Amino acid sequence: MDTSRRCTLLAFALVVSMVLPSVAGNIDNTDIDPVEDYQPQPREYPNDWTHRPVLEVFTSLSCPPCMSNSEPQVISLYDEYASNEGVPFTIITFHQTNGGAGDDSTVNQDSKDRYNHYSPVGTPDGEIDGGWIQSQDYPESLAEAGQRSVKPANLNITQKWDGDQLVISSNIEYLGSSWSPDPTDPLGSGQDLVDGDVLNYELYFFVVEHQVVAYSSEEGAIVTTPFVSRATLGPYGGSLDAGEVIEHRDGWTVFTEQQHPNDGVVSLEPRIVPGNIEIVAVLYDTDDESKSPSGANPKAGVSRAINSATPRSTAFDAGNTLPTVAMVEEVSTGSDASITAFFDDEDGITTAVVMYNTVSANHTGDWGIAPMAISGSEICDEAGVCYAYGDASGDATIPVTDGDSLYYQVVFSDGKENFNTDEVRAFAGGSPVAGDVDGFSWVLWGGIFLLGILLSTAFAVWGSMPYKGSYFD
Hints:
Layout: H1 3-19, E1 30-32, E2 54-59, H2 64-83, E3 90-95, H3 109-118, E4 125-128, E5 133-134, H4 138-146, E6 153-162, E7 165-174, H5 186-195, E8 198-209, E9 212-216, E10 221-225, E11 228-241, E12 245-253, E13 257-260, E14 264-267, E15 277-285, E16 304-309, H6 311-317, E17 324-333, E18 336-344, E19 349-357, E20 368-371, E21 373-380, E22 386-399, E23 407-414, E24 419-421, E25 425-426, H7 442-463
Parallel strand pairs: 2-3
Antiparallel strand pairs: 1-12, 2-4, 4-5, 6-7, 7-12, 8-11, 8-15, 9-10, 13-14, 15-16, 17-18, 18-22, 19-20, 19-23, 21-22, 23-24, 23-25
């Protein structure tokens, strides 16, 4: 099978994930049968690495050595992570109650469970590729792990907000061969000869929030900490033959209470900022307990990670361009704020939401989520199934109390399930959202009317341009 046909097969898996319902906690796994004469297509990863290594950091905002060691390192790595479109590595930080006052507000039971999985002696701790290296030098260890030999597997993940639920879809393609003898593992090679080359795996979805603003008792101040684990979904497990693909789907919703490892169910403070959420998928080989040749404290008895992915890395690997917001139109009517976003993406738009609050652009409290009604030119596949809108716009109306300001962010996905977020905007340039006001200037009304005509004319010209894209291009 040629590359274009194989790409179509994988694209179909993503379309399926888009049209089938996904319910939080309800896992729907789909096997895609191996294709005869299919030739695996290994990927080229950033830095010429064999895969995307993952760094699991155990830290605390109240722990003195964490604030002087692990936190400065992950903050530095965040800059590289955010600016490199290839996403050479992934990072999850699991905050603990260890050290100092033990009052890190981002601690949760899932993070404590992950800590117990590795059983480190304390924080800070860095587990790279599932304990292949246990290290305090994160950049050097990531580079070493990125070059190690792993079972080859392509890993993709997408996320999209469907109303107030984040729908997650991931697929794994095992690039094995019918038999892969390993002189260092005669027993495993013999088993390969009997049942073929098999990947026994576990897959996790880590719900990561970027740039969390929280109080550090060690610093005595508010700090910004990246890659914070808010929840863990999985593991999802199974076995894959060479050339086989499997898909895993799940859903997640924002919560305001969480299980604390010491204090039971507590109110979540700071609240989750949904526009900063990214899902990190990590694939572990349950037969792999290899160790770093450098002898850097490998963790015994746990499975090694052989790849990781984010929605951004998935788009990069597929050569896709992320969708963007070309223009936003705002109208205040009575006590409602009406927002229209015009999107720029040749693959069309499938879903979009507006996340909003009435406090500030960097609000750490509750954000509302309002779905946008998408319209435009329907994009359909060869079977006539329509799955996205080209030349798309999205509309949402948000009730706002007279005099309140409104801060909002448009979050959206395109026809290839590429995910992106717009900047946080202040409605009407930061002016209060208000209804009709006595004595309102007719000059201002005229300016708004003229601006509306110009925007409508520009959109009509833009919308009349021929649509270029299709999902299967």
